[in-house]
Design goal:
Distance between the termini of chain A: 53 Å
Number of domains of chain A: 3
CATH topology of chain C: Methane Monooxygenase Hydroxylase, Chain G, domain 1
Number of helices of chain A: 14
Largest sheet of chain A: 5 strands, mixed
Structural class of chain C: alpha+beta
CATH superfamily of chain C: Fumarate reductase/succinate dehydrogenase flavoprotein-like, C-terminal domain
Number of strands of chain C: 4
CATH class of the largest domain in chain A: Mainly Alpha
Radius of gyration of chain C: 18 Å
Order of helices and strands of chain A: EEHEEHEEEHHHHHHHHHHHH
Number of helices of chain C: 3
Oligomer: heterotrimer
Structural class of chain A: alpha+beta
CATH topology of the largest domain in chain A: Fumarate Reductase Iron-sulfur Protein, Chain B, domain 2
CATH superfamily of the largest domain in chain A: Alpha-helical ferredoxin
Chains: A alpha+beta, B alpha/beta, C alpha+beta
Shape of chain C: elongated
Chain lengths: ~325, ~325, ~120
Amino acid sequence: MPTTTLDVFRYQPDTSETAYRQAFELEHGDDLTLLDAILRLQNEQDGTLAIRYSCRSSICGSCACKANGKTVLACMTQVEDVKREYESDTVAVDPMGNFAPLKDLIVDLDPFWEKFKSVKPYLIPDGPPPERERIVPKEAMQKIYKESRCILCAACYSECNSFTADPEFVGPAAFAWGYRFAGDVRDSQRKQRAKLYSGDHGVWDCTRCMYCNERCPKGVDPRDAIEKLGGVAFAEGVTRDKGARHAKAFLISMRTGGKLNETLLVPFTDPIGAPLDTPFALQMLRHGKAPSPIPHRIKKLNEVKALMKNVKETI
Amino acid sequence: MATTVDSGQALEDPTGTAPDPQGRGLRQFAYYPGCIAEFSSKELDKTTKALAPMLDIELLPLPAATCCGAGDIAEAKPNLYLTLNVRILSQAEEMGVDVLTICNVCTLNLRRANKMVRDDPRLLEKVNEELVKAGARPYEGTKEVTHLLWYLATEEGLSLLERHGPRGLNGLRVAPYYGCQLLRPSSVMGFEDPDRPQSLERLIVALGGEVADYEAKSKCCGFPIILARTEVALKESHVALSQSRDAGADCMVTPCPLCHLAMDAYQRKAEAANATEYNMPVLHLPQLIGLALGLDTEVMDFKRHLVPVDRVLETVGV
Amino acid sequence: MQEKVGVFRTGSELSEAQATVERLREKYKSVVVTDKGRTFNQSLIHTIETGYLLDLALTMVTGAVERTESRGAHSRLDYTERDDENWIKHTLAYLEDDQIRLDYSEVTMTKYEPQVRSY
């Protein structure tokens, strides 16, 4: 029977304001999930140990936490697998990142729920309900299939680099739901959603660190959803944000030369702010970072121009 | 959580062919430097080209290749992103070679496009229809995309470096900085464990340097939003910069010119925004290799960096 | 409960289980909640739930001991046949003064009459 040391983050606000770590030893069979382990510790060794849980089968989204620093669902994580991967009999267990701990592995998810609500995560169809059901072709629902898998576990926020730097960032799961509805053919608010999601702390704040795609236990790929919402914004003509202008500069560059035109990029992204940053511009110039005044032009640019004209977006 | 524990996992280059340590003949690649390496970070392109023959690599140009679009074209026009990147892959395929990149973002974009069309033949058909209509060559899905770091971090690559290194790094303390898009999402990248990468560490050691380890080596530098959300980006780069400094690093090394811009060109801004000092020289990966292999420092064009690299050159003994 | 009050049950095991549950309910009267805090006290919830589970267990086993026949998921290995003459009735259980009092009520039969289950 294997033995594991669980090195657990403890925070017991009823007894102390200071967090600490506690090592527990557990003897167990080969099949033991991290959630099983924590519940056994709670039952047999320390009744004050707290973790959110419910279904024990990776569908309720309650038990997200960190195993050796990596955000996982505890009920989906085999302790022996973690030990084998890290070649150690000790597993460090921590609460999710980016949220304030409330007690041991339980964190304050109120900000998460606020962000979720803020994207209007429900269908807003046009007009009153029809006589019969709204018939939707299979392909139309396939388009939003990945995003519809979200179980609101918040694992994607745990290591989101934008969220760490900006606590007001609306965030990956919220935008996954955003696309789930913006991309739903029955929804009538695409343009309004594009405007809602494009503001401060919105889709253009995503730093593209890809932690959300990497961590999501359900294969939602929230970063892809954020990317698609950018596509929706462009399709709906909602492109005033600096982030959208940044992307527009790329498109203009493609059409005119094929490579990124850096001379264009900075002033086009921020026509108001950029000209004011003269000291920085001069500094860049002094270090030779002034792009060539004659923009580069690739061979066979006509192919690119044709593609830009012909390829239709199906977002 | 990044650690230095080398789990000894065998790193395999996705092209399936690692360098030949015996040095029998040149390995040809379609060279895809990306846009930044050819403009703002021109020193990266120059160094790579000078280094290539020393690494038995022949870099074939792609004169008709566009920008990969970074995350931006994908965000604005997803179908166009796919078509443009498959077009690049098709050009390499026409030359009969795999693609070699020197930028995290280019690597992710090209590999992702490659994966999308290889996983879905109907999608490839649709993309090819558009390519043919525009007068371009359709793609058969036979080529791979690899980054110079991956190519050299295999067993064979490290042997090649060890064999070629006349000067070595003389114990230079280097903080490895991976950034994001060369590691994640691992379903697309997959060269190494995204949470415990070792390729840079192995290279640093093989070149005679010391690893200055720290936790934030695969946290985001913020470059994708450096113009649109500068404040947020400068909070991001602070993490890796400050941790490298606290780990006693002489310099950082990165395989991505965008990360390099964020951490070198924007370093003074980050210092101002975070009320601190880093004074941290940042090297491109080929520059680190070039220093170890005795490449002429004029070629490596360090004066283009905003943060001076004097203490690096002193330690290495140039 | 799983061992002695499962689908397949015998009178003697049911009586043993009944004694065990009654003993546990006595013990429960002096149960200690290990977490004394007021924040997210899961130990308190588990303790309260255990009390209710014990009440339910007593209800289940008392009703099962009395029903000397087999019917559906109540499959008595010592009374293997269904006894429609004596046992077509609903068992009602009341918790009074910490004991279970059983009572029975008539079954309303309309369209479907009880039949032998055969395939």
